[in-house]
Amino acid sequence: MRIIKASDYNEMSRCAANIIAAQITLKPDSVLGLATGSTPIGTYKLLVKGYQQGNLDFSKVKSVNLDEYCGLDGSHDQSYRYFMNTNLFNHVNIDMANTNVPNGIATDLEQECKRYDRLIEELGGVDLQLLGIGHNGHIGFNEPNEFFDKTTHVVDLKQSTIDANSRFFEKIEDVPKRASTMGIKSIMSAKKVLLVAGADKKDIIERALFGPITPQVPASVLQFHNDLIVVVSEK
Ligand code: PGA
Fold first, then answer.
1. What are 10-35's pLDDT values in tens digits?
2. Ligand 1 closest atom vs CA 131
3. Quick one: which atom of ligand 1 is closest to the CA of 138?
4. Which of 48, 55, 116, 192 is the most exposed place for a label (fewest CB within 10 A)?
């Protein structure tokens, strides 16, 4: 495990964007595992800048996102598909057909989860997985649990997650109660994992990286990953 301490959010973003840029440069047809949330927004902004300046080419990149709210269509401004389109995909030369987010409005969500796992397999697995972390230690929407969920599955969101995400919705009742998420095995199968965390995540980062490995702190499983980079912002 490598921990990079960035002095602030901008440096954290720069560091993370440089690592992703290096991945794309070294392997132009990389499969990127992507994350939503406020933490990676700065990273995506810098990747867009890298593309606009002619330093990055996304034309062969493929992407799979970690998760999606159940019940939200990709055109809903709080869906994770919408987030990815507006924060990254619409601004770089990635082929939209190569971008993947679980379908939150699939009629059969279980089948959709299976399809998503097959898709990741067919793509040859994830080369670099970008992750944020929840205050409760969740990665993707793998919430604290009695066991580690393995593959893509539908989860009931914890009240703490619903509360944390309510800042993006008009009313707390509008926050979806369920989501589809890649599982812990899917995340752990990525060849490289890049976890980004702001200063507000200091306590949970400490528990996840140095505490006991337990499904009660899902991110703690990352201690077992043999190519984990954590970029944490000091303030
Ligand atoms: P945040 O979310 O980046 O908005 O803090 C991270 C997460 O919950 O995974």
1. 999 999 999 999 999 999 999 999 99
2. 9
3. 9
4. 55
